[in-house]
User: What shape does this take?
Amino acid sequence: MQTKTYLAPTKLEALLKIREEHGADAVILSERTVQKGKLFGKKPMVEIVVGIKGGEPEPNPASKVEPKGIDEYDPTQTRLRKLEREMQEIRALVQTLHAYFTNGTLPSDNDAHALEMPRIAAAVDEHPLLRPLLEAGVEQEIAQELLRRVPRIPQNAALDTLKRLLAAKIPTGGALPRESRHRQVAVLVGPTGVGKTTTIAKLAAIHALDYHRKVALLSLDTYRIGAIQQLRTYAELMQLPLHVATTAEEVQEGLELFSDYDLVLVDTIGRGQRDEAHLQEMRQALLPVKGIVYLTLSATADTATLLDAAQRFAIFEPDAIILTKLDEAARLGNCVNLALRAEQPLAYFTNGQRVPEDITIADAQIITCRVLSAVLQCHAKHPRLESSVFQV
Ligand SMILES: Nc1nc2c(ncn2[C@@H]2O[C@H](COP(=O)(O)OP(=O)(O)OP(=O)(O)O)[C@@H](O)[C@H]2O)c(=O)[nH]1
Ligand SMILES: [Mg+2]
Assistant: This one.
């Protein structure tokens, strides 16, 4: 290798000169600043010694410096080389992914991407709607089962299929008919404060005032605490008869009293649902009732609480579920979990305190739409998830 020394006022000028003369054949061996000129006219100059590829070496005049290609001083060249390296890495990664998804094999340990694979595979394997569904409160197992039949792309098709599947999976039914040839009796059981009495008032108003049926009210107060004022007020407002019972005999009396009515709505006092003995006492008292039993649950409760209540009130052998306070529930994934795990269909939804307006016959679409709007909001919160995974 030949060496040659260049002197210029600046490093850039020296480098330009070197490149002009030798192109990529020159490698920098040393570089220093030297003072050049007469005594009073001394100026700092940059001195660069280069080795020219193919030439004979000259004794190295300066300290030992790792030779560098002249091109490394060109920022454009440096960037190009970096891009080239990245392209090679991406190519290798794509090949690894391709092998993984076509053969199902993980790359060997000496593969540069072996460590990355579990993370990448998990991200690609995970359905893009899984996380949003979980955030909407749907249980992992249910979400995964649902998504097994939902395409990943395009997003609209995925959401449409999910909506259809979800709506089809939520069982509904058991609402009271508008009319019937025989007297109907409906009992509402459920935890304290879920809205049993309010729902009874709503049903009573609709059936008495809108459907012109003969409606009577019966309140089961096994606690003998006289907590019937609320129902008494509704009864007076709607001018409906009310009978209060604490034992099975008194319930029987009430039913006989209302034998020529179209609909008897039975309210129960929800205190002490954790007290097995009291629930049993209530069950005994309700034995004379031959009618439809509604398990009333609040949509504001979490899944575990809902399922726990469903289990406790199973002794009443409910026929259908009334979900209350949908207006207060932040997300309805819990209702999906309940609907898919409980044995009974959903009969009514209540969505406010107004009597009788805030009640509707259960419609799976209502829950589905609320869950999906939560899913969409969740997507908005995870734009990276959407863009990276939907485009795979
Ligand atoms: N936001 C909202 N509030 C409701 C709804 N239904 C009932 N409520 C309110 O919930 C509270 C309790 O309602 P109640 O009807 O007394 O509940 P309950 O199940 O009879 O209660 P207990 O008899 O004590 O077991 C009241 O303030 C109701 O106005 C509803 O759909 N949405
Ligand atoms: Mg009540």
